[in-house]
Amino acid sequence: MKVMLGAIRTLIVDDSSTLRAMLDVVISKHRDFRPPEHAANALQAIETLDVRLFDLVLLDINMPGMNGLQLLDHIVSNDLARVMIVSASSVRGSEIRVDALKRGAIACFDKANCIREADRLVGLIRKIVAGKYEDALCSENIDMAMGRVAEKA
């Protein structure tokens, strides 16, 4: 995977234009981020990833056509970018969350919290891009060795 220098480049992949706009607002106000690029579905994301490099893909799970887990497999197997799942389907304890992490997602974030916990989301993105995976994983309480998500104590 190629590492980029400079401002953080993100690709938001979600079929909801509302969520893409919300994430855009959260990310764009930070000077260390470039304005995010968007894809409304997996095929648009693949086309974009074929021509541009991104530090992180923010990926929804439930999309028409190719779903987020299938796209995650494509991104990981082709070493295109790191991926954080941003989906209501990936809440703590869900099988989808565990599956996404096993398939190579770096972290998961509940999209319902994108605005309310915007600072935590941005901080998590920064940790991931900085290569501090362990810090990011700990902040999300992920127990990768057991293949499950640990609840907060």
Write a concise keyword list for the protein shown above:
alpha/beta; globular; disordered C terminus; disordered N terminus; 153 residues; two-stranded antiparallel ribbon
The largest sheet, given as strand count, sense and whether it forms a barrel, is: 5 strands, parallel
Class by SSE composition: alpha/beta
Number of contiguous helices: 6
Secondary-structure element pattern, one letter each: EHEHEHEHEHHEE
* Beta-strand proportion: 15-25%
In percent, how helical is the residue content?
25-40%
Sequence-ordered SSE layout with sheet pairings:
Blueprint: E1 10-13, H1 17-28, E2 37-39, H2 42-51, E3 56-59, H3 68-77, E4 82-86, H4 95-103, E5 107-109, H5 118-129, H6 133-139, E6 142-143, E7 148-149
Parallel strand pairs: 1-2, 1-3, 3-4, 4-5
Antiparallel strand pairs: 6-7
Explain how this protein is built.
This protein is of the alpha/beta class. It contains six helices and seven strands. The strands form two sheets. Strands 2-1-3-4-5 form a five-stranded parallel beta sheet, sandwiched between helices. The protein has a two-stranded antiparallel ribbon with strand order 6-7. β3, α3 (68-77) and β4 form a beta-alpha-beta unit. The N and C termini lie far apart (35 Å).
